[in-house]
Write a structure and sequence with these properties.
The structure is a homodimer of 351-residue chains. Helices cover 43% and strands 15% of the residues of chain A. With 351 residues, chain A is of the alpha/beta class. Chain A has 3 domains: 44 residues, Orthogonal Bundle (434 Repressor (Amino-terminal Domain)), CATH 1.10.260.40; 134 residues, Response regulator (Rossmann fold); 131 residues, Rossmann fold. In chain A, the strands form 3 sheets. Chain A has a 6-stranded parallel beta sheet, with helices on both faces. A 4-stranded parallel beta sheet of chain A has the order 9-8-10-11. In chain A, helix 1 crosses helix 2, helix 5 crosses helix 13 and helix 6 runs parallel beside helix 7. The first copy, chain A, starts with 5 loop residues before the first strand and ends in an 11-residue tail after the last strand. In chain A, 47% of the residues are buried. At the A-B interface, strand 1, helix 4, strand 2, helix 5 and strand 4 of A face strand 1, helix 4, strand 2, helix 5 and strand 4 of B. Strand 1 of chain A pairs antiparallel with strand 2 of chain B, so a sheet runs across the interface. The structure holds a DNA duplex (16 and 16 nucleotides).
DNA sequence: CTGAAAGCGCTTACAG
DNA sequence: CTGAAAGCGCTTACAG
């Protein structure tokens, strides 16, 4: 807990302003917060003096006295991922507009680091926490770091283990199952019958949901999914390129692959290119996220748009709304994702 | 200044722990900060009680009393841009490891919003500010928001106007001119003679530097740059695609284009594709930044790597070092960028 | 309309 | 080794 911290230079305080104007600190405080109780003349004199001395409001002191807070903690598993960067931008936009400040934490997908980050952030007394948890992080540990009272909004993934009944959190989740269902149905409608699900970790929340959506859509169409047609990878391009071999080496290859996300789809395309296969023509595929590259890749990638910046705004709004009502039951929000069709990545099967 | 803020729930404080253990607050405080002065037994009892009651340290109160700070403000012009997202991730990594917390602000490239963001952040009393300024932001206004005492590190761009002698800031800049010089020389070495500089705003700091680097390299090679060979655009893909027409409609086209950055290069490639031109073959090009897409695009894009995450770490280290020495003169750091050659984007000219 | 006093949750000399 | 008192920079009743 005790860490090195920097000393502060001497600052202008209310006392300096009050002394210069010949009024009390209380009066200056009232001016600062725009109270109508103060005489116009006095107000003008005080404001001029604030300006002149370069006074900077010490919100920490005010928060301490008023028992309020003016920050929101945002903890994401990977800021380097454009999806989460956009999400963070959306959060900060709304948080800032509400007069709060965003405390940032990035966990690099490590549950250990997440624990340390939460412990550090919570000491700064945020009004609430928006958490996109690292893989494998547990409800009990998170609650341990945050305490039972902290308003908490979970984004994108669930924690492992149960939410304590006493401290339900809010959630904002993408409708992964339905989204992947749309992609799968699109491929089926184009004539594909042998379809694989490629990439992602099977046990992560979105992984489970996306696989489930895929399997359900296949079942509805009465299509079989051979066991080799479910291939795992880390949810990034590099590992996906590696894992592609498993899929591409099958004696009976699929004609199409529903991919866990765009990064994984791009990794698969990369691997195909290296083998002289043409993505789209030799294997149709779809992604998830609609990252910028999806439109740019060749062929353009059919994918599911999640509007991460808008999700960030939404998450911030949900959490800010919660601050006023700490004791109401946890609220679960699921947002639909939209199929973005780029024909070139999923033509009908060759033969 | 007065904005809505959320009320705090009743919290466990030092007083609760002290009362439960039958010791004074001072003793608990010493335990918290690991002082060796406390009796082993007392320490153990206090620690057990801290755990039992779920005590959360109030760092704001401690900072107030000790006149210290434990946060760093990070203000970027666009978090949605992967370059700045990576930079932010690097900053947060080092800031967090030093026991500080990152206060995030995103300005969306608006000098107005930047002013508001700085004003809000500074009230939270950060130890210093890392600023990647919005285009067109002025030194005087920034100093006005931050006060003369605030340690400040400028990243990537300069402010307009002079730094006051009393308050020099540190800078961390990319060696734009030299980087673009490398790219230009590479194209020249491959046999190109008619080379354009494409995209970016001519008056932004990096825009000026990159153009200057291009012109200097052309001059060294005694090559002419017709006036139509300098084309401006916003530094993003969309506007670059629009601006491409100016370049591609020239009666005497260049055989190669040195692009302001990767986004702009990708926009140019997009526009070429729409006209049935093949990037690389019909017009060689280079980028700047080495974003992920540069490797993935087809053809792969020759570009300049800036290692934004490492730049973020470096910025945080520079600022943290400055905290201990507030009065030493401002320090200017320029880091080299590295040419990443992907042959396919810049073959020799066709004829 | 303005001021004197108390207090938010900590830490820091200073006694003992 | 532990406790009583003062104070960081604000705000909030309460008097006047």
């Amino acid at each position: 807990m005790p860490l090195s911290h920097a000393p502060l230079r001497r600052k202008v305080t209310l006392i300096d302003i009050a002394a210069a104007c010949g009024v009390s600190r209380a009066t200056v405080s009232l001016v600062l917060r725009g109270s109508p109780l103060v005489n116009r003349d006095t107000r003008a004199r005080v404001q001029a003096e604030l300006q002149r001395q370069g006074y900077i409001y010490n919100r920490a002191a005010a928060n301490l006295r008023r028992r309020t807070t003016s920050s929101i903690a945002l903890v994401v598993n990977d800021l380097g991922n454009p999806f989460f960067a956009e999400f963070a931008a959306g959060v900060d936009e709304v948080v800032g507009a509400a007069g709060f400040v965003t405390l940032l934490g990035s966990t690099g997908e490590s549950a250990e680091r997440q624990q340390a980050v939460l412990g550090s952030l919570v000491e700064h007394n945020p009004g609430g926490v928006i958490l996109s948890p690292a893989e494998g992080s547990e409800a009990a540990r998170v609650m341990d770091a945050l305490g039972p009272q902290m308003p908490l909004l979970m984004f994108n993934r669930e924690l492992e283990g149960e939410a304590p009944a006493s401290a339900p959190w809010d959630t904002l989740m993408l409708d992964n199952a339905r989204g992947i269902g749309l992609a799968t149905e699109h491929l089926i409608a184009r004539g594909h019958r042998r379809i694989a699900f490629f990439g992602g970790h099977a046990r992560s929340t979105p992984g489970q949901q996306r696989r489930a959506g895929f399997l359900a859509a296949m079942k509805r169409a009465k299509l079989e999914v051979p066991s080799g047609f479910l291939v795992e990878s880390a949810p990034n391009r590099l590992d996906a390129a590696r894992a592609s071999a498993v899929l591409l080496d099958l004696r009976t290859r699929p004609t199409a692959a529903v991919c866990y996300n765009d990064a994984v789809a791009l990794g698969l395309m990369l691997a195909m290119g290296r083998r002289g296969m043409r993505p789209g023509r030799d294997l149709a595929l779809t992604g998830f996220d609609d990252i910028d590259e999806a439109a740019l890749a060749s062929p353009g990638l059919t994918t599911l748009a999640t509007a991460p910046r808008e999700r960030g705004r939404q998450a911030a709004r949900l959490l800010l709304a919660r601050l006023g009502h700490p004791h109401e039951p946890g609220q679960r929000t699921t947002v639909p994702v939209e199929l973005v069709i780029r024909e070139s990545s999923c033509p009908p099967p060759a033969a």
